[in-house]
Amino acid sequence: MLFHSHLFLFLFLPLTLAGWYFFNNRGKYRAAQGFLIGMSLWFYGYLNPACLGIFLLLCLLGYGLCRLAHTAQGAPHSARQKKMVLAAGVVLHLGALGYFKYADFFLENANALLGSDFTLLHVILPVGISFYTFQQLAYLIDCCRGETTVCSLLDYLTFQTYFPQVQQGPILLWDQFLPQLHEKERRIFDAERFSKGICRFVIGLSKKVLLADTLAKAVSFGYDNVACLDSPSAAFLAAGYMLELYFDFSGYCDMAVGIGDMIGLKVAENFDSPFLSQSVKEFWRRWHITLGRFFTKYVYIPLGGSRKGKLRTLLNTMVVFLLSGLWHGAGWTFVFWGFLHGAGVAFSVLFPSKKEKDGKEKGRLFVFLRQALTFSYVSLAFVFFRAPSIREGAAVLRQLFSGGWNGFLFQIASALDPSELYLVTKAVSLAAPALLSLVHMGILILFIAICLITVRGKKAAVLTEQMGDSRRFAVWLSVLFVWSVLSMTGVTTFLYFNF
């Protein structure tokens, strides 16, 4: 099920909130959790029920391994037993992820390298498997390290199936979520918390539906016609997709945080104004924060982190980003994308900014230039995240630096075609058709300006805190909500939906 659907907004979410508070208000906390688990499983399995059995099986097996790790505490040869449990967990979780997500990728490459003829499996990719695999694996690792407390199966299933984040993250750690289940004040309806959750949800919904999905039409048109690109249209394609992805993913995470506030079980923040970053290293502290935290805690630090010299630091950094690229998708474009970001972070390590060295910043112009350069580099790297092949991604960059102009940007502008301005464009097409392309271009420029103002403005969390009680803010949110609901007939699928 998708957050940006009429079924979710007008049936699933009201029913879930009503049932959750109904049981909690009567002190039936276990029944409330059971109800929440049931609704979460409905949410997860709605679009593809076949994935539900796989998800449940991995949850139950994962919980069994966690119990074994806790049982081994204090037992003779406990260290050895915990290593065996951890090895079994790695095989289970990463094995499942490897089979469902990467089997065909490895078979294709084996066929290409060896001249073999292995038949591709074409297995169905369970929704969100990359997210819940890491979440379950992180909890198991912490169990084996002795860092967690024993939890019940009910708590574990609530943690792993929690619907605001099960399909698309953020990736929660046990100490961020499980203690909340035993704080009774979170089970009580709180009007202020609930209203802030609604505000946050509406902001995320509008970012996803009104900004990301509108940009998607123009960006998709450009990538469908790469051979026609000129320098300006290629530049739009790089920046436009970066903005589309940001509004899509951060909008979805805003909705998840908002739903968590409505329920009372908070979800971690996943973005922190990434386009204000002055280096690629800083960008990754602000972008997809929970994924970066996972790789830092469970890969980078165990490899030695930055404790074994600069060369080892750079090597560890590159390993993390190559794995991150592969995590994002089963394709060489994603691996190359990871390499480019690893190289960018390595550059930041070798040549830190004045802010990173001594905590001081230079003038505003210097800061703005560093932000612009970081945004440019990141946008160019994300071309390979979007392109179907490295060759096609390279073609986009080749066109970008060719310096040519053939007017294709006017066609991209016409593909944007926001439905809200249909009457305007229709009237121009009838009264002055020669001016229609200029009108489309003006709309594109205005839309990009709105997007840039949005990404450089206040964060959704800050906006909600500062303006939550304002009547003007409430009216503005009401308009955004109605506008988003009316626009949902043509929404695209969430970009991270199949991760």
**Helical residue percent?**
over 70%
DSSP summary: helix tally: 21
| Major pleated sheet | none
Number of domains: 2
Total beta strands: 0
Protein structure class: mainly alpha
H/E series, N to C? HHHHHHHHHHHHHHHHHHHHH
Overall form: globular
Mean pLDDT across every amino acid position = 91
Gyration radius, to the nearest Å?
Answer: 24 Å
End-to-end Cα distance, whole Å, is: 15 Å
Q: Poorly predicted ranges (pLDDT <50, ≥5 residues)?
A: none
Proportion of β residues? under 5%
Notes on the protein architecture:
The mean pLDDT is 91. The radius of gyration is 24 Å and the shape is globular. Helix 3 (50-71) runs antiparallel to helix 4 (78-114), helix 4 (78-114) runs antiparallel to helix 5 and helix 9 crosses helix 16 (390-400). With 499 residues, it is mainly α. It has helices at residues 6-25, 29-45, 50-71, 78-114, 129-144, 153-161, 174-177, 191-223, 231-263, 280-286, 289-300, 310-328, 332-350, 354-358, 364-386, 390-400, 408-416, 422-431, 436-456, 460-467, 471-487. Helices cover 71% and strands 0% of the residues.
